Amino acid sequence: MTRQEPMSLPLWNELGESLEGKELEELQLAKLKSLLVRVYEKSPYYRDKFDKAGVNPHNFTSLEQYLDYPFFTKNEERESQARSLEEDGHPLGKHITCDISAVNRMSASSGTTGVPSFQGHTANDRKIHNENYARMFARLGLKPGDRGLFAGVISMWVAGLPTLDGMLSYGINTIPLGALVGSLKVAEMARLTRPRLIIGTPSFLRHVLRKARAETDIDLTSVGIEKILVYGEPGGSLPEVISELSKGFGGAQVYDLMGGTGCMNPIFISCEAEDGLHFIAPDHAYIEMRDPATGKMIPIEDGAEGEFVYTGFDRECSPLVRFCDGDLMHVKTAPCSCGRPGWRIKVVGRVDDMMLVKGVNVYPTAIQTCVLKHKPKLTGNIRILKYSDGPVVEPPLELWAECAGKPSKTEQDEIKARLESEIKRVLRFSANVTLFAEDEMEMEYGATNKAKLIKKMY
Ligand SMILES: [Zn+2]
User: Fold this and answer.
1) What is the C-alpha separation between 83 and 81, in angstroms, rounded?
2) What is the distance in A from the centroid of ligand 1 to the CA of 8?
3) pLDDT for res 115
4) Phi and psi (nearest 5°) for 50?
5) CA of 333 to the centre of ligand 1 (A)
């Protein structure tokens, strides 16, 4: 991998963010060894798991050997946490490797099964989180003292309080509003506090724009917002969503953030080139890629696509060694026009959301992209109706889409025909589209305000 000349904006940690080649491999080897030995010595759970797999961290001498270490799946994490709650009186898992009294912050992710999984953080875990946030804020061109309005969900979400912690630590003049106050309150507070930065999920911030326009005289194009940081949903990298958010907030630059479970998020952030999210923490996170169908490992190289496997090097509380979280990514290693270091990713989708239509892999984002081409007639909000568990979907795929305003029956028939033919042309299967007038389609949001694109009918 090569990289361009230094960028105009200084990096927060030039050394950590630019590591590559032999220097990086040496650091990865040393950090992995230290992690593996630590979890083996401190956790009977890991010792048992490694013994069963026939690996001993004391003999770990090359990165190739890491391929022999067992994966950690989401189910395993849930089971480990259910057991520790039962046996040890806390939900942080049998794979905890620190004293429980060293944990001073907890978060939870809702998970697809409805049973939350918990993350605990020690003081050092928080320090590394905050370092990664600082790298991100510096890349956004933010300075200590800049005002930032937080409009994500605060309650328990791993991107809630930890993000606020990162903002405070960096010195952002933090406005900790949260999303649960509702979209109109967010618009009102943006008007009253004039932040330079606003943070939230793409669907919620779009909702804020629409509600403010429809129900208030607040002009969000002129409240001074220059940076929009979105996360939690794939929308932050869809050109139509970026353009709607940017226009709605008066030409502000949209940045998209991604984490990796167990890796002290954030570890990926997009840039002004809007051509993928840079990996900003090679010294904190080890990333591997595998084929979700065969389980075969895939090298991280230009054009590669597969499921990411995450290992956070330094996590003290409950480290996850080779965690498979179901994120499907596309890798780009060519230098970015912004000049900053770090190979880039594009989010393809989630393994859980993958559908198999006529033998072809289809992700909800691909369908959403077709729908977004019909803006401004359609808002981009969609629901894909699934009638059975498992990835196979028999065409025609049942799709709901929301119209902007209340178009006439004739207009609706025309939009429906166009969208169905677009899906047929681009994705090569038939869809049956049902249109709804604006705000009349039933939306569903997860605990963290993420819009659910798939509606389960079974
Ligand atoms: Zn870039």
Assistant:
1) 5
2) 12
3) 78
4) -70, -40
5) 11
Residue in the block written with tokens 């990835």:
391
Residue closest to 416 by CA, chosen among 400, 438, 395: 400
Q: How far is the CA of 114 from the centre of ligand 1 (A)?
A: 36
pLDDT tens for 31-74 read: 999 999 999 999 999 999 999 999 999 999 999 999 999 999 98
Hey, how many other C-beta atoms are within 10 angstroms of the C-beta on 436?
A: 17
Q: What is the mean pLDDT of residues 347-362?
A: 82
Which among 56, 125, 62 is positioned nearest to 314, based on CA atoms?
125
**What is the rounded average pLDDT for all residues in the chain?**
92
Strand order through the sheet with 397-403: 431-436, 397-403, 378-386, 454-456
CB 257 within 8 A of CB 231: yes
pLDDT band at 5 (very low <50, low <70, confident <90, very high): very low
Cis peptide bond N-terminal to 376, omega within 30: yes
Question: How large is the C-alpha radius of gyration of the chain?
Answer: 22
The C-alpha atoms of residue 458 and residue 456 are separated, in whole angstroms, by: 6
Per the listing, tokens 């960028």 go with: 7
* Residues 6+ away with beta carbon under 8 Å from 121: 103, 104, 105, 106, 107, 129, 162, 317
Q: Are 354 and 402 in contact (CB under 8 A)?
A: no
C-alpha 320 – ligand 1 centre gap (Å): 29
| C-alpha of residue 313 to centroid of ligand 1, in Å | 25
Q: What is the pLDDT of residues 124-144, one digit of tens each?
A: 999 999 999 999 999 999 999
Q: Which spans in 304-399 are helix H?
A: 364-372
The yes-or-no verdict on residue 447 having pLDDT over 90 is no
Give the Cα separation of 338 and 343 in Å (integer).
Answer: 12
Q: In angstroms, what is the span from residue 251 Cα to ligand 1's centroid? A: 19
3-state SS assignment for residue 94: coil
- How far is the centre of ligand 1, averaged over its atoms, from the C-alpha of 110 (Å)? 31
CA of 277 to the centre of ligand 1 (A): 7
Q: What was the pLDDT predicted at 111?
A: 60
Q: Which residue has the tokens 């409009």?
A: 151
Q: In terms of DSSP bridges, do strands 344-350 and 355-357 run parallel, antiparallel, or are they unpaired?
A: unpaired
* Cβ atoms of 158 and 181 closer than 8 Å: no
- Which one-letter DSSP state was computed for residue 57? G
How many angstroms separate the CA atoms of 235 and 180, rounded?
20
Residue 452: both structure tokens together: 């659910």
What does the pLDDT average to over 168-189? 97
Please state the rounded mean pLDDT for residues 412-423: 94
Give pTM, 2 decimals.
0.86
Tokens encoding 238: 């869809």
